[in-house]
Design goal:
This protein is 7% helix and 50% strand. It has 1 helix and 11 strands, in the order E-E-H-E-E-E-E-E-E-E-E-E. Strands 3, 4, 6, 9 and 11 form a 5-stranded antiparallel β-sheet that branches. Strand 1 and strand 2 form a beta hairpin.
Length: 137
């Protein structure tokens, strides 16, 4: 796909992504999560399967929680498990912008999951929601 910016400039989707996210992703996907009440420890609150024969990066994460907790972003790169821990110190919404990508030097392998997992059990009546912004190379 190409974008036209007037009569003399035409740029590709990849170039738009390079300008916006700082990396030439061929696709960018926003993965909306659902609200989960009182999740068990280790629950995947949102996940994305990287397409076959492609590599993926986590560009951004939105975490909405009604209590403090820790969250792990997990992925597989080069056949090895990787993770990044986030601490939410109080209730509320936290938006994390990892442009050009949290794991830009350690991209997730194709046919593997990128997941956001809560570390501790959610309290009774507490709700959690996680959205992901994924760049695909």
């Amino acid at each position: 796909m190409r974008f036209t910016l007037g009569p003399f400039v035409s740029i590709s989707t990849t170039d738009v992504n390079r300008i916006h996210y700082g990396y030439p992703y061929t696709d960018v996907v926003y993965v909306r999560g659902s609200y989960v009440t009182a999740p068990a420890p280790g629950s995947a609150l949102n996940q994305f399967t990287c397409p076959a024969q492609r590599r993926c990066a986590v560009i951004g994460v939105l975490i909405d929680a009604t209590e403090p907790n820790y969250f792990d972003i997990t992925w597989v790169s080069g056949g090895n498990s990787r993770s990044y821990r986030i601490r939410i110190p109080s209730d509320g919404v936290m938006v994390l912008d990892f442009s050009p990508g949290l794991n830009i030097s350690d991209l997730a392998d194709g046919n593997t999951e990128i997941s956001v997992i809560n570390v501790n059990a959610g309290g009774a009546g507490n709700a959690y929601k996680v959205d992901l912004l994924i760049g695909i190379v």
